[in-house]
Amino acid sequence: MKPLTLLYIEDDTDIQEIYIEFLNDYVETVHLANDGETGYDMYLEYKPDIILLDINMPKLDGLTLAEKIRKTDKNVQIIITTAYGEQEKLLKAIELYLVKYILKPIDFNELKDALGKAIDELELISNSVEPVQKIYCLDENSVWNRDTEKLYTNREEIKLTKNERRLLALISTDENKVFTFFDIFNHIAQDNYDKNYDANQVRALVKLLRKKIPKESIINIYGEGYRFNPVNIEDCANQY
Question: Which helix (DSSP H) or strand (DSSP E) does residue 75 occupy?
């Protein structure tokens, strides 16, 4: 397996200091954040293998953050810590596929067990999941590379705005899924937490993106949202 990275999100820096050395025995790199918003930004930047986070954090609570991450990432291993009185909140976490939740103060043996389970699961994923095709042909001349988040037409890169790139990156994660207007808005507004939901903004963004790609590459599912629709052209992806 590749060297593992862990993102530890906890607003109490004194608590973080207690466990950093312990965590470094299990992973190559530990990144630290002290609130939910910063934690999400660091998740996007570093794409860690494991996330250890507290349920009660400023700006963005742990469950909301975990739910936000799970919308596009099913493989990152999430461990949540919680105070005794917050256990009822974990009913919301049933569908978040957590490795474990640990009561504070964190017992080192419980943390060791959780990390071991996370690492075992990552190894299983690494050994069993076949590489996913991440280069998509949109027509004979247009290609979207989801790994690099770059769009090409006739081998020339087409410049995308930040939101156009985010939109295309999101819907190309699953060509069989219909992404709702809210799914898309929530993803493109990921660094603007105070922005109010606006479906018209999503429609306008799709319209702008369709000027740069074949229109049929994004299908409008009436009353629901949008679905990615690449084409199957032999050897197209191999040219990029």
Answer: none
